[in-house]
Design goal:
This protein is an alpha/beta fold and 210 residues long. Helix content is 29%, strand content 18%. Helix 1 (39-44) links the parallel strand 2 and strand 3 (53-57). The radius of gyration is 18 Å and the shape is globular.
């Protein structure tokens, strides 16, 4: 599988011509420092190949980048955003792309500061999704996944869900339990509750899910 890994910034410029290769199926855009200027956009707009796997690490995801992701979602099988700052408007565009003819089977949004409000936006794109088999929202700031729990049963292909290392509260357990009972396709769920100084979590609530 032809793949390409590019470091965001000046060092990656030498690879720009290779991005237009029609044989390119996997692309990893990364940075050793967290960037805030949407550098991924300048690379993604060059891509004419039908990507199957796209990984973006340590970049800002704004509206311009999200529109390019929308364009690519028709063929992408895996989309991974790691340690990115995703704006609410960009997530809205991404959700719309997931809801409109996406072929994506694996969605990972990890360490991207997704909180309850951003999760509600994302849920709009996940509802009635028939292609996603794996969704991972690890290491975010989710406290109440009720909105996600209520639409799990509409995700007819979902087999794996991870909410590891979020700030789940006692309210989240019962909601997830109720949603899971209506989601027969799900065969693996990962939840590692992150305790905080300000919140006492009754782990028995989440143990009941298993």
């Amino acid at each position: 599988m032809p793949a390409l890994s590019i470091e965001l910034g000046p060092r990656g410029v030498q690879h720009i011509q290779r991005l237009t290769s029609e044989s390119l199926t996997s692309l990893n855009l990364f940075s050793h420092v967290h960037r805030r200027d949407e550098e991924s956009y300048y690379w993604l707009r060059q891509v004419t190949a039908q990507l199957q796997i796209l990984v973006i690490e340590s970049d800002a995801i704004g509206d311009r980048t999200a529109r390019e992701l929308q364009r690519l979602l028709g063929g992408l099988k895996e989309l991974i955003l790691e340690n990115c700052q995703v704006s609410a408007s960009a997530l809205l565009l991404l959700a719309a792309g997931l809801a409109q003819g996406s072929a994506c089977a694996k969605l990972v949004i990890r360490r991207c500061h997704v909180d309850d409000n951003l999760l509600k936006i994302l849920v709009g794109g996940l509802k009635n999704n028939s292609t996603l088999e794996e969704v991972s929202l690890e290491y975010n700031n989710i406290q109440d996944p009720t909105g996600l729990a209520t639409i799990l049963s509409t995700m007819t292909s979902l087999r794996y869900l991870s909410l590891n290392h979020n700030l789940l509260t006692n309210k989240g357990g019962p909601a997830l339990l109720k949603g899971l009972k209506k989601t027969p396709s799900l065969i693996k769920l990962k939840i590692q509750v992150q305790q905080t100084r300000n919140k006492r979590i009754d782990v028995r609530i989440f143990q009941s899910i298993y």
